[in-house]
Amino acid sequence: MLSLVAFERKPAYASMTEMLRESMTRGSIPAGTVILESHLATLFNSSRAPVRQALATLEAEGLLGRFAGRGLVVGPGSSPTRIPITREMVTPAAEPGVLPDVDPADAIYYAVERNIILHSLFGGFRVNELALARAYDISRLAARNLLLRAQGVGIVGKGEKSHWWIVPLNLDRMASLYELREILEPVALQNAANSIPPILIEEIAVRHRVAIERFPEVDIATLDELEDDIHVKLLGFSTNHEIIGALKRGRALFVSTKHIQIALKRTALIDPFLDEHLAVVEALGLGEIDAAARGLRDHLHASNTKSLRNLAHFNETQKVEPVDYILSQ
Questions:
Q1: Residues 175-196: pLDDT tens digits?
Q2: ∠ at Cα 114 (111, 118), nearest 5°?
Q3: CA distances from 249 to 1, 55, 162, 244, 294 (A)
Q4: 67 and 80 share a domain?
Q5: Which helix (H) or strand (E) holds 328?
Q6: Are residues 73 and 37 part of one domain?
Q7: Residues 244, 162 share a domain
Q8: Of these four, 35, 79, 129, 290, which has the most CB atoms within 10 Å of its CB?
């Protein structure tokens, strides 16, 4: 069974409490660090209320204490030190070679992304920004940032009246986007190959080998990173910016096919994509640029067939569950 980030809804303060508790326990936020409510609200892209509740919980547990100054200090009785708390300091620890979920807001984002994708398969819908903020107990700004992130991968758009709408995805559009990528990505890779640093090629190869070894215990953030490795990072070295611009339109494919496959509870089709990716990367590492381009073309062609089959099966067998912040147009 594929191990993925859970989409269960939990209060924002509870997620923050868990992240901060783990970071303090393992020492990535060291004893003596001064914690300011306003700084954490900015870091978590949140309103202050859940941050305040998280800090109160940690103070009650004895992980935080008061001192003669503004804020709280990690480790009661420790000498206060005002060092900046970074995103990396509150990132969950990862296994070697597999990147963790690096954004504290990612769990919420993936849940929102999933709901948007599944609704996109059933026609026209819009997203209510205020209702989204209320659903996850986050600020209006945080909700807007989530939707801007979704817009960046092409699954939502913004209308003239600042209304967010979900970009519909049907069989014809999916097939067209795959055709676009199947034509352009191999060309972009051939163009980029000589500019890609060898150390990056090796790092990407290592990540894929580790993921293959751990399969099916691969989380959703790692799957995203592996897709990004091939289809964004490597191709980003192409000097043909027109091709790169055109390919951005197809990024919705990868997030869409991922969530469709998860909804269908299919894991068998994920493992081959890891092997196909690794074959492309290893060919690049050997300087076999044409072989890498052919491998990428074959990978996209195979993905097209599998994804169209999954989408057709999803439409025939599934229905979308209502979500408070997604409304019919």
A1: 898 899 999 999 999 999 999 9
A2: 145
A3: 32, 42, 21, 9, 22
A4: yes
A5: strand 326-328
A6: yes
A7: no
A8: 35
